[in-house]
């Protein structure tokens, strides 16, 4: 049974990593030196797609190195991480005629995390939200205090997640990449990566159902240094 789960996870990961490569090939074939405007637009798309693919491969490599002592835990300013991600994704949201609203209401400014891993989690959730918002609509990235922790939420407007995925997130038992039949473009690989990174940081990843979408969240432990601010 365990080997079957691993094989299915490998299949999902391979499928997700194959998709951007196929898109990059298609974009490369449509480059036309005689049409500078189209070439410039496709070049930007190529860079965007390749950056996201490189990030996923890099994140997968990090999973294998989590226990090597390379990712130290430290006080992290969570708003700063969110601001950085919003800046990085500004072009992607704009090119899709969408936007990302930021809302900060947390009194606790510092969390205990690894900044690199936390960045990957929030970045993955935000890129996933882009796929599930209509043109001229806004996704939301929010930070607030909750039960002695800091919660970061990313809201999307896609189909509901399967019940078994909600259950695995609630039980912290998502141990392999998963395929979302109702969300064919969703990143099951990204959710798996987020879960592994959160588990390493002693944080919790979860999801909240809505009639018109899903809110993904990560709950982070507060840094005691926060009281100094």
What does this structure look like?
- This protein is globular.
- The model is unreliable at 1-11 and 182-186 (pLDDT under 50).
- It has helices at residues 2-29, 36-64, 78-88, 90-95, 115-131, 163-171, 188-200, and strands spanning 74-77, 99-104, 110-113, 138-146, 149-156, 204-210, 213-221.
- It contains seven helices and seven strands.
- Helix 1 packs antiparallel against helix 2 (36-64), helix 2 packs across helix 7 and helix 5 (115-131) packs antiparallel against helix 7 (188-200).
- It is an alpha+beta fold.
- The longest helix is centred in the N-terminal third of the chain and has 29 residues, at 36-64.
- Helix content is 49%, strand content 21%.
- It has a five-stranded mixed sheet with strand order 2-4-5-7-6.
- It has a single domain (2-228), classed as Histidine kinase-like ATPase, C-terminal domain (Heat Shock Protein 90), CATH 3.30.565.
């Amino acid at each position: 049974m365990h080997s079957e789960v691993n094989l299915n996870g490998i299949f999902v990961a391979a499928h997700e990593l194959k998709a951007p490569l196929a898109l990059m090939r298609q974009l490369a074939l449509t480059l036309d030196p005689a049409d500078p405007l189209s070439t410039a637009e496709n070049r930007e798309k190529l860079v965007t797609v390749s950056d996201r693919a490189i990030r996923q491969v890099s994140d997968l490599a990090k999973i294998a190195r989590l226990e090597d002592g390379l990712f130290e835990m430290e006080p992290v300013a969570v708003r700063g991480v969110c601001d950085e991600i919003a800046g990085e994704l500004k072009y992607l949201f704009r090119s899709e005629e969408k936007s990302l609203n930021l809302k900060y209401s947390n009194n606790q400014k510092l969390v205990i995390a690894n900044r690199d891993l936390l960045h990957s989690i929030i970045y993955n959730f935000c890129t996933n939200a882009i796929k599930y918002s209509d043109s001229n609509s806004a996704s939301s990235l929010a930070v607030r205090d909750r039960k002695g922790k800091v919660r970061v939420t990313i809201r999307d407007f896609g189909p509901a997640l399967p019940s078994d995925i909600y259950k695995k997130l609630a039980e912290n038992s998502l141990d392999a990449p998963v395929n979302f039949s109702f969300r064919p473009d969703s990143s099951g690989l990204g959710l798996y990566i987020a879960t592994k990174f959160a588990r390493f940081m002693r944080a919790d990843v979860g999801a909240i159902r809505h009639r018109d979408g899903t809110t993904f969240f990560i709950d982070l432990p507060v840094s005691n240094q926060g009281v100094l601010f």
